[in-house]
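Sorry to interrupt, but I need a hand with the structure work. It will help me judge whether the discrete encoding reads sensibly. Write everything out right here, beneath this request:
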Amino acid sequence: MIDLGVSGQVLALLVVAGFAAGYVDAVVGGGGLVQLPSLLLALPGATPVQVLATNKLASALGVTVSATTYFRRVRPDPATFGPLMLMAFLGSMGGAAVASFIPRAAFQPIILVVLVGVGAYVLFRPDLGSETRLRWERRGQLVAAVVTGLLVGFYDGALGPGTGSFFVLALVGLVGYDFLTASANARLANWATNVAALVVFIPQGAVLWGVGLAVGAANIAGSYLGARTAVSRGAGFVRVFFIVIVSGFVVRIGGEVLGFWG
């Protein structure tokens, strides 16, 4: 039994979810949409802040591996990922500070609405993210990175699931990167948001360390495999994977919100 009475069998299922989340997160982001619901189900006695904090620990471990892999192989532009990471860090700290005020029941409806919009936008624009076509000069890229970092970072600190996907979408749709380069920048920004949230959550004593470290170890393995797959397969693979994953999340979360299944 580990943390809040989690049995070995439940922990094993969480480890599987952590591996899947790490893979998904490394390719297109959104691993939290696998990992967070699993933690919510497995830890019914935990508060929302404890679940969020534990999810952040596991995600931070995995995204460290995927971010390093992308950085070494894709070489993203520091002019974009530098301000993006800084603003994402600050935004995430702000979001984490208000996380305890967000009711548990509000999580899924909010995520569902955002996912439907994201998925539709990418699906009906088939050329989106096929190659890098920057829409702004340096100053415009800086503004886009600052705004994206603050807004998505705040969301990540307050809720979290889908953050990587939202970073990818913003970098593709707003800045003009291809999906692979956007994923590289997103992983770096996501690392910053996870660390920032933990800066707030750890002093609060919100992290369930036993569960978080076990799921995090699996997340590391999934992240490593996912990042290497994305780099080797390219932007086209990342785009298709993005659409499939977002569609699956919409069906699952939509069914739960509408009461089709528990």
